[in-house]
Amino acid sequence: MLYQNYLDSVENIHLVNISKIVDCAEPYPVLNNGIISDRTFGPISATYSCSPGFTGVGQGNRITCRPGGQWSALSYSCEPPGKTV
Length: 85
Fold this sequence. Notes:
mainly beta, Complement Module, domain 1, 4-stranded antiparallel sheet
């Protein structure tokens, strides 16, 4: 029985998926008049939304953590009503 338990343990070691969660070295970038609306950890990313009353301008409201611990560029802004860009 002890031998069988050992074999079962060795077999189960190969079935375990080991994941290492690494955080981006830099803090999340600040988006004026905006919030982080979603975060993921595989890959590490953050999606931004505008605060109520503000309008999102740009297409890049999602950033990802790049190798070396730096965030990709955030090409998105939250503009007040009536402001032309």
